[in-house]
């Protein structure tokens, strides 16, 4: 294999993703495992999880540096990397990355503590990856990273100036699995997507009727057969994503970019269109690019 | 015992509450059991649950009429009592109460289907009980019935003209038990109340930052030790109740009355005061008064 330069680790709560990066930052190889940070406890467990996944890469090239981001740097991770306060750029993050051992560093998360504190771990790296791939975003943009805890991060002059988390994905999972709404829906994963119901949910959110009120409509639309059982999950998804977008669009409009899982980003793009927003830039996994960019800043490569 | 006139049954999803009412509608005796409608299936199961709880009352006075409200009248209850559309008054509800057997009737629920449908079963009876006890509310008021699914019902000229459900109590339970927020909180029921944290949550909701966003602050306020673990449930409660109130107060202001569990109503009253609202009328369980009023309308007594 040609010239590996860095082992990049996107080490979240539930997954460990490893990328072997080449001289241009390109992904030569990638692997993943279930050894998320929340499943591990103690230095040895983290060492072992890393050895299991990429021990052969390290044996083949013992001098390769490793750079990690995500919950591996939390209080309960391998080594705590204290949050860096916004506004922050890649240089500040890189300067505050603790060294775990001779060749391994962990990128710290960000805290926005202007008012009520908000935090991210891992997304900051995806953001700097997105800015590395699309420098035109670095001037003034809002990067949206949908997920269990969606992040809306404002970027200006190459720095993350602030951000807000929305528990949209977690609320969806809770309501889909445990609430009174779940009883009217087919078992999880068994229903085909209903784009119409998704749009209907987004449009309901645009009317801004109060989330806890509008959620109850998922039940009544099912009870009165205005939506079929298999449409209800998508209506719920549209309602939740719509409320997230409605809340964020109250700020001054900015150029938007969506970063993350393509299917989920496509949903957000569809919902944004219902709000009359121009089509956002869509970016897939930018964690390897972010780790590459930060490793350059740290002169690890 | 002096002169019983009616067996009033408040038969919800999880509880069956029975009241033996005297000649003035006063409660002579009351009992309850876990034989909620959601735990029973088939006519015999309902018959049996009723016999177990109040069989002796019926044996002593076989001619006593019985009137029930709540989920006992749902699709999956003893006998379906189809929803009556708003606006509706006590006479309309009484006229549409199906007869289950010679002496037993079930009060139907209400549907507000002007826009997205909304439904209630049981609360309509509490509302007409409140209006019977406080006729001054019947002209123009909003009755708030806090709970798992809180109801805000608008009343004018003796009719319920419309209402909205908020899944506030259910969201609290889901987030308290199953979410990432729960991990920072003490086990359920083990923490003393924190009125300060409750008010802080209400005040956060008044800023209207988007519910799914503000929920994440429950986590970060705990992470950064701005609130103690035992304060987080009350902050969460204040946030959810505050959002419910903020959404409803966007309508034209009306005279408010709180109906239901005194401890929960006291929380709502405290939150309403933070919104600058005058002290609402507080009413405890009004289901017996409502069933008495409807039984009079039906000439059962």
From TrEMBL, chains A, B:
- So where does this one cross the membrane? none
Pfam families (alphabetical): DGOK
Q: Which InterPro entries match?
A: DGOK, DGOK_C, DGOK_N
Q: What is this protein called?
A: 2-dehydro-3-deoxygalactonokinase
